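Case study B.
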Amino acid sequence: MIPEIGHFALVLAFIVAIAQGVVPLWGAHKGAGRLMSFADQASYLQFGLLTLSFAALAHAYLVSDFTVLNVVQNSHSLKPILYKFAGTWGNHEGSLLLWVWMLALFGAAVALFGKNLPPSLRARVLAVQGIIAIGFLAFMLATSNPFLREIPPPLDGNDLNPLLQDPGLALHPPLLYVGYVGFSLVFSFAVAALIEGRIDPAWARWVRPWTLVAWTALGAGIALGARWAYYELGWGGWWFWDPVENVSFMPWIVGTALLHCVSVVEKREAFRAWTVLLAILAFSLSLLGTFIVRSGLLTSVHAFAVDPERGVFILVLLFIAIGGSLLLYAWRAPTLTGGGSFGLVSRESGLLLNNLLLSTATATVLVGTLYPLFLDMITGEVVSVGPPFYNKTFVPLSIPLFVLMGIGPFLAWKKADLGRVFNVLLIAALASMAVAAVAAVLLGGGPVMAVIFLGLSAWLVISSALEMAERVRLFRIPLGDSWARLKGLPRRQWGMTLAHAGMGIAILGMTGSTVWKDERIETLQIGQSMEIAGYTLTLDSIDDVVGPNYQSEMATLSVTYGGSDLGVLQPERRFYPVQQMPTTEAAIRISLGGDLYAVLGDTRAAGAQGYLVRVYYEPLVIWIWIGTVVLTLGGIISIAARQPRLAKTRQRVRQAPQPAE
Amino acid sequence: MKPKRKRLAVVAAALLCLGGATALVLTAFDESLAYFYSPMNIVAEPPGPQQPVRLGGLVAPGSVERTGTDVRFIVTDEVENVPVFYSGILPDLFREGQGVVVEGKLSRGGLFEAHTVLAKHDENYMPAEVADALKASGAWRHGEPPPGVTLPPENAGGGYTQ
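Model:
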């Protein structure tokens, strides 16, 4: 009964979405207040219905209702409860349901908190959200209904892919979706503004926090995915430039550009058309990210289903959404010209260059991701584009970007005086070169490119710190006054500084673990040892272990460094009988200097020669996670920032009618 | 600064970025694109010894030999056989008789030196390019289940012993 309620709610939500997509648009066109305010009610109703629907599916998963086909295919009664719940979105149908549920959540949030938006803008934003929901719900109901029944029910389910049974991964898709769906809201604001033909600082003040929410969540989701790949896949890597990784990364880069651009609209009213274009692109890439992963165009652990009917539906949806919005843009954007003028050296110019570089970098990733698809379609030749391609394109393009990232915050709006900040920048540059040189010597030399990136890492951290010091006039006024200034700094300032410094910290980890990584593979008998990066690992035993829904063989390796005992590493090879799937569980010893990462090879192949053991030494890898946490923190602080100017406008609006009374 | 000159500067910066990126993309394509070969293709038109390529097919049953960390096996499409050498730990789902993709270079002697071995992600899934190659070679005829999908006996009982 409950699954039927869920299905019914989904159908009702589809009908509400149609009404939400049409009525408020008409109302806004005619200036009819009643029709416009229908958008609010429709958004709440939509959210309620989809919550009901999602709860019904989650319930089916939690109680292991094997009369529901989706549960049969993706769950198992013995699965731990967390993964039963996470299984709700660990599959194609469920993940789409989560997506539209979030869409409705964000829509309801605009209806609830957006009371101070101009009514016609709010109505149009919600209508565009409704139109997006129409597309998604039609796709779900036509090709991907999560509530299909399986009668008679089987005794038990097929289980979730064991690789995906991981706490970090339970959170990875929802975070990515907050990002994708957040950009849908920004997109709706952009399209609504195009229809209205008006973009002003008030618009930007609305768009900015939503962009921040989307950007922060997407970044955190990507980082979680990278972390998952690092400890779960057993290859010792955290990023493979795999197409499915790229499609989540591209909206993040464009989102970064958008974030910087929106503040220009807000402060200086410049770059308005470009901002709208970026909003459209960020969402288009998010759609690509949602669908390319599911469509079977790219095969990987993420591809839940390969179904041509879905593929065609997806292409049509993408075509309508992206093509339609770009067409609207081409038609309406020329009206959005003007804005404040600015000098060649100014914050605006810096951000313009930042946007150019970010867009170009995104374009290289897009080319690398889609080129094999196009080549296959046109010539039938099958090629793969791997890390070497991105190392030669994206990586060098990021150098000027990171250099600029250190300078930008020092530049004033409108017209900046480079001479005034030149000394500070020189200090930062010299200090980073020194840090890079020392680090390179400590790591035992390395390629020029790697040393450059160590320098850039230091540059971002040092320049962020110096910029902060400059703001509080450190050592130029008494320390107590500086402290007072520091406490008084707006949260946005803190957010930016943390985000820039966090990026710098992450670069340190990325560079260290990529360039100075060490790998040893040896066959060990019980009692034999191997050495890597000064560590000695001795194979003590191999034991059989039984887990809740798997069987495992666990190696115990004792680790010593320079004679001192550092405990044991216990890598496992698990076997999940329901899915007939073996997995590798790496054992990792984490430290600030570098991780020791051990993997046990296939024990069936182990004969008289011993057991295959692979060990990686990953210098500085932990700084990637620390950096992304700082980056995310920067985002969260910025989201929480009060909007002083908005409060002022509100006051003015409130006071304005008084004289008229 | 006059608006006209400013616009010129913006356009110049944009062109510089795009031009630089295009140059980078083109050189990178030249050096790092890996073409996919089936055993049939690689024997018919062998790539140069410096050319990074991917080879996909089935792991020939009974062909896997291990010495320490070194592995030798044969990738076949039931028309041609290509010997492969790899040093390292094979992926979890590497099995004889099942689909595999190896990345590396073909040496002059015809031995494929792999730096990466990719096996399929789950039991029912066959890399799309391998499936196409097998259909082309006739090893997988239309309407039949794909080769290698039946479980090897050691796993059919759910056991996982050495």
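The CA atoms of residues 153 and 159 of chain B lie 9 Å apart. The remaining cases will be described in the next quarterly update.
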